[in-house]
Design a protein that fits this description.
heterodimer, A: about 140 residues, alpha+beta, Immunoglobulin-like, 5-stranded mixed beta sheet, 10 strands, about 20% helix, B: about 500 residues, mainly alpha, Cytochrome C Oxidase, Chain A, 2 strands, about 70% helix, globular
Chain lengths: ~140, ~500
C-alpha cells in the first residue's frame, strides 16, 4: 500500500465514467425519439389472456391469434391483460411491453415492408406460456 | 492457520457445535449438496431444449417447476450459504476474534436452511424465482406455491441473522489493535454485503407476507381484481433483489481479493480503493432496482432515473477489476487451481458487466428484456463470476479445512472444462436472445438458428456437468485420501507477508 502512484487508476476511472455518460446520453436521446407517438397513429387494442392474444381495430373488427396491418401506417397498441401478466412482443420490430391487468400500456410501431412476423409472450404466464404466439401480417396499403 | 477436521470426530459433535469453523463446515457441505441438486436440474432443462418439441420432460408444468426450483436453489441454497461458509471460517480469524460474535445465533441461522430447502424441494413450485403476481396469486397451484413462500421467508430470516452476526463480529469484536481500515478486504466484503442484507431483505419479507395473504384471499395488495397493483410487488421484489445481486457478488470479489495477491506473490495494489469500491457498490446497489421493470409501462422519466442509477454502479465494479489487474501486474503469478478460477471469474465478470451496460441503456433493453439474453447475462454473473470465485476459494481453503491437498491436475481440468462450458452456454444465450427467443419456455418453434444455438448451449452445459463430476470425485477422494497438506504454505508460494492477519496471531 502507498508505494505506487495512483494516476493510472484515476485516468481509468475517468474513462469509465466518460463512457457511461456517453452511453446514458445516447440512450436517453434515442428513447426520447422512439417514444414519440405520431398523432395519426391508428389504435389497436391488444388483450393478452392465458394463453392467446386478441386484437381489436379502431373500426371494431376483432382478430384472435392474427393481426393484419397495412405497411407504411403508424399503429399505437393499447395493451391490456384479462388475467395475469403477459408481455406483448413483436421481436422483429422491437415492440415489447408488458400486459398488466388493471393497466393500459401503450407502444407504437410503423411497419414498412409487406411480410409476416411472429408475435409472442415474453413474460412467464403459466402452462402454455411457451406457445402463446400470434402472427403479424403486414399487407399492402391499397387506399394510398 | 488450520481450520479443523484434522482428526475424525463423530458427526453429531459437528452438528451440535456452535464453533465458527464447525458451522462453516455445515454451511459448506449443505451449499455443495444444493449446488449438485440445482445443477442437475439445469442439465435436465438444457437437455429438454436440445430439440424443439418434447424431449425428456413430459409436460410444460414440470419444466416450469424445474427452472423455478433450479433458480431458487442455486441462489438461496448454494451461493448464499457458500458465502456464509467462507465468512464463518475466515471473518473471525481475520478480525482476530475467537469466534463469531453470537455463536448460538450463528448455529440457528444455519439450521434454518435445511427446513427451508426441504420446503422448496418438496413443494416444487412453478411461478419462477420471481413469483410474479397476479399469476402467483390466482394461478399458481398450491401447496407448492405456499411452501415456496414459507421456505423463502425462513431463508430471509436466516440471512438477516447471519448478517447481524457478521456486522457485530467485524465492528465490535475486531482486535483493539486493528483499525477498521486494516481489516482484510475479504472481511470488508462481508461487512458491506451484510449491511445490504439488513436494508434490503425486510422489503421482500413484507412482500412475501402480502403475497401469502393475497393467496389466501383475505387481502388484495397485488391482485387487480381486488384493487391491488402487481407492479407494486415488482418494486418491492426488485428493491430487495437487485441489491441481493451485490450481496452475492461482493463476497465473491472479496474471495478474489484473497486469492489474487497470494498467487501473484504481491500485496494488493490498493487496499483503500478496494474498501472504497465495496462501500460505493453497496450504496449504489439501491439506486437501480427498477431497471428490471422498463417494460412494465414506466414513464420516460422513471426509466431515465433508473438508467442513471444503474450506470452509476459501473465505475465501482471497474475499480475492482483495475485493482485485480494492477495486483497481478509484474507479479510472479502461480497459476494453481484457485488462481485460475479467480482470473477466469474476473474475465467473465467483465463480460457480464459489459452486457449489463447494454441492458441498462433504455432503447436496447427493449431488445433484450425477458429474452435469453437476460438469462445469459445474469448467469455470467451468478455462474461466471460468483460461482467461479466461490469454487476457486473452495480449492484455496480446501487444505486448511481438511488438512489434505486436492488433486491439482483434476482441479485444473475442472476449471478448463467449466470455463469452456460457461462461455458456450451463456455467450450463446446472449445471441439467442438477440434472435428473439423468450425466456422460461418449454418449447420453441423450429427456427434453424434457434435450434443450432440451443444445441451449442446444451453441449456447453453438459461439459460443465462433466467438469462438476470431476470436481465431486476430487473433493470426496482428496478429503479422505489426498496428500497431507503443508498448512503453513500449501501452495508452495513462499514468503510470509501474504498472511497479515495470521502473522500477528500465530497461535490461533
Amino acid at each position: 500500500m502507498g508505494h505506487h502512484s495512483n494516476w493510472p487508476e484515476w485516468v481509468y476511472i475517468g474513462v469509465v465514467v466518460a463512457l457511461m455518460v456517453w452511453v446514458g446520453a445516447e440512450a436517453w436521446n434515442a428513447e426520447r425519439l422512439v417514444e414519440h407517438i405520431p398523432a395519426d397513429a391508428e389504435v389497436i387494442k391488444v388483450t393478452g389472456q392465458q394463453w392467446f392474444w386478441t386484437f381489436e381495430h379502431e373500426d371494431g373488427t376483432k382478430e384472435i391469434g392474427e393481426l393484419h396491418v397495412k405497411s407504411g401506417k403508424a399503429y399505437k397498441f393499447e395493451i391490456m391483460s384479462k388475467d395475469v401478466n403477459h408481455s406483448f412482443n413483436i421481436h422483429d420490430y422491437v415492440v415489447l411491453l408488458d400486459a398488466v391487468p388493471g393497466r393500459v400500456n401503450t407502444v407504437w410501431f410503423a411497419p414498412m415492408e409487406v411480410g409476416e412476423h411472429d408475435i409472442q409472450c415474453r413474460e412467464y404466464c403459466g402452462l402454455i406460456h411457451y406457445n402463446m404466439r400470434a402472427k403479424l401480417i403486414i399487407e399492402e396499403d391499397e387506399s394510398s | 492457520m488450520v481450520l479443523e477436521l484434522q482428526k475424525p470426530r463423530p458427526i453429531w459433535q459437528i452438528m451440535f457445535s456452535t464453533h465458527h469453523t464447525d458451522v462453516g463446515l455445515l454451511y459448506l457441505i449443505t451449499s455443495l449438496a444444493f449446488l449438485f441438486l440445482g445443477g442437475a436440474l439445469a442439465l435436465a432443462i438444457r437437455a429438454e431444449l436440445f430439440f424443439p418439441g418434447s424431449q425428456i420432460i413430459a409436460d410444460s408444468m414440470t419444466f416450469n417447476r424445474m427452472f423455478t426450483v433450479h433458480g431458487t436453489t442455486l441462489i438461496f441454497l448454494f451461493l448464499l450459504p457458500f458465502a456464509s461458509a467462507v465468512g464463518n471460517y475466515f471473518v473471525p480469524i481475520m478480525v482476530r476474534y475467537k469466534d463469531m460474535a453470537y455463536p448460538k445465533l450463528n448455529a440457528i441461522a444455519f439450521w434454518m436452511i435445511p427446513p427451508a430447502g426441504a420446503l422448496i424441494w418438496l413443494g416444487f413450485a412453478d411461478f419462477t424465482w420471481y413469483a410474479t403476481p397476479p399469476y402467483s396469486i390466482i394461478s399458481a397451484p398450491g401447496p407448492a406455491a405456499d411452501m415456496w413462500i414459507f421456505g423463502l421467508k425462513i431463508l430471509g430470516i436466516s440471512s438477516v441473522l447471519g448478517a447481524i452476526n457478521f456486522i457485530v463480529t467485524i465492528l465490535k469484536c475486531k482486535h483493539p489493535d486493528m483499525s477498521i481500515g486494516q481489516v482484510p478486504l475479504l472481511a470488508w466484503s462481508f461487512l458491506t454485503s451484510s449491511l445490504i442484507v439488513l436494508v434490503a431483505i425486510p422489503t421482500f419479507a413484507a412482500a412475501l407476507l402480502m403475497l401469502l395473504t393475497d393467496r389466501l384471499g383475505v387481502s388484495g395488495f397485488f391482485n387487480p381484481a381486488m384493487g391491488g397493483d402487481p407492479i407494486a410487488y415488482a418494486h418491492l421484489f426488485w428493491f430487495t433483489f437487485h441489491p441481493e445481486v451485490y450481496v452475492l457478488v461482493i463476497p465473491a470479489i472479496g474471495m478474489m481479493y484473497e486469492i489474487i495477491p497470494r498467487f501473484s506473490r504481491k500485496p494488493i495494489f490498493s487496499h483503500s480503493s478496494g474498501i472504497f469500491a465495496f462501500v460505493l457498490l453497496s450504496m449504489v446497489s439501491f439506486s437501480s432496482w427498477a431497471h428490471h421493470m422498463y417494460a412494465t409501462g414506466m414513464s420516460f422519466t422513471e426509466k431515465t432515473v433508473f438508467m442513471i442509477g444503474t450506470l452509476a454502479a459501473v465505475p465501482a465494479s471497474a475499480m475492482h477489476v483495475f485493482n485485480f489487474i494492477a495486483t497481478m501486474w509484474n507479479g510472479r503469478i502461480k497459476f494453481a487451481t484457485p488462481m485460475m478460477w479467480a482470473v477466469g471469474g474476473i474475465a467473465l465478470f467483465f463480460s457480464a458487466g459489459a452486457g449489463g451496460v447494454v441492458n441498462a441503456a433504455m432503447p436496447l433493453d427493449f431488445q433484450t428484456h425477458d429474452s435469453y439474453w437476460v438469462v445469459g447475462h445474469f448467469h455470467l454473473f451468478v455462474m461466471g463470476t460468483i460461482a467461479f470465485g466461490s469454487i476457486g476459494f473452495l480449492y484455496y481453503m480446501f487444505p486448511y479445512v481438511t488438512g489434505r491437498m486436492y488433486n491439482e491436475r483434476m482441479g485444473q481440468v475442472h476449471f478448463v472444462l467449466s470455463f469452456i462450458g460457461t462461455v458456450l452456454v451463456f455467450f450463446t444465450q446472449h445471441v439467442l436472445g438477440l434472435y428473439g427467443m423468450s425466456r422460461r419456455v418449454y418449447d420453441y418453434p423450429p427456427i434453424p438458428e434457434w435450434i443450432a444455438m440451443n444445441q451449442i448451449a446444451t453441449v456447453g452445459a453438459m461439459i460443465i456437468g462433466v467438469s462438476m463430476i470431476i470436481f465431486l470425485i476430487n473433493i470426496i477422494y482428496s478429503s479422505g485420501k489426498g496428500k497431507i497438506a503443508d498448512t503453513d504454505d500449501p501452495f508452495s508460494l513462499g514468503g510470509k507477508y501474504y498472511w497479515p492477519y495470521e502473522a500477528k496471531n500465530p497461535s490461533h
